[in-house]
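Long-time lurker, finally posting.

We've been working with histidine kinase (Pedobacter kyungheensis) and I want a structural starting point before designing mutants. I don't trust myself to interpret raw outputs, so I'm hoping someone here can both generate the structure tokens and explain anything notable. Sequence follows.
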Amino acid sequence: MAQIDTAIFCQLGSLSADGYFIFELKTSRFVYLNDSIAKLWELPLDDIFEKPALLLKNIHPEDADHVVSCYEETLESKTEKKYEFRLLFNDYEKYLRTSVFTLTDSTSLYLLGIVEDTTIMRHNKIHIEQINSRKNITLEVLAHDLKEPFGMIKLAASSIEDSLNHTGDLKVMEALAFIKDMCARNLLLVRSMINREFLKSSAIEIGKERADLVWELRDVVRFYKRSKLGRTKNIQFTSSAETIYLRLDTMKFLQVINNLISNALKFTADDGFIGLHAEAYENTVLISVTDNGIGIPEELQAGLFDHLPQTLRSGLKGEESGGFGMGIIKAIVELHRGKIWFTSKVGVGTTFYIELPK
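Top reply, 14 upvotes:
Generated this for you. Predicted structure of histidine kinase:
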């Protein structure tokens, strides 16, 4: 390793709040560590030099296998790699992101890299994603809850209008016509707002980070269960594992799940079943959204993801279809290098499947 390169790297490390390291594979020792590494791990620097394995003790137990696989992948590929993992302390955890490089000289192989504390950024991102996800669910619930009273008002106005047809009171008739028109306009407004929000928040590039899929899906179902929609349907979530880690753009992917559940709600009768399941395999994860609703007619199935006008249907209670939701769902899944498909039978129900790589 050229001395000038080492000197520059170490000089950068001494000035940086991020951790800098050089690790020699031949001796299994650190050639260089800056003070920031010790601060990140909350260990004395001399102790880390003496016993490098001390760094492993603070790795979050759920991330231990992940860290080992990252180490092995770096040695095998010998190209720049970026990884994320967590440290666990007594009552809190830290999120770290590391960039690792390999260098060789005539006698040995070295790993060198930079470790960044992303805890605050990660917590902020999780908080924003939760707000955005719940916003979309809330809008969907709001549209459902508003449709019933608006519909009842419109029905009452129609009934009164029929009764007044015999009296010829033009002022009252005009007022009732105004009420009916406003109800119709506001229902369209709510649905249009939801469609625009879904399109706007889905049409940008994705930014994937490591996330616990089980926690995210359970949170979505928990929110639905607390809503009025949850009290009219039997919504359940199951998983083959307590935690399943994937690289996701969580905000975008939850849009997919929310849209599939929303569609299931529209086409499933009250007291019907809607199930969300995550199954972990060796290299993939299979997510399914199942309902026992009215099903999709065979003649509509081929064009479901293609924005075809003939595939657009109103829900059981007259809920409008946005006309582009399924196309966006497919696009987001494919941006995650995944696949989406479905099975459906009229009168039996529908299941959507999403397969994602680990």
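Before you design anything, note these points.
The longest helix spans residues 119-164.
The domain at 122-357 is CATH 3.30.565.10 (Heat Shock Protein 90).
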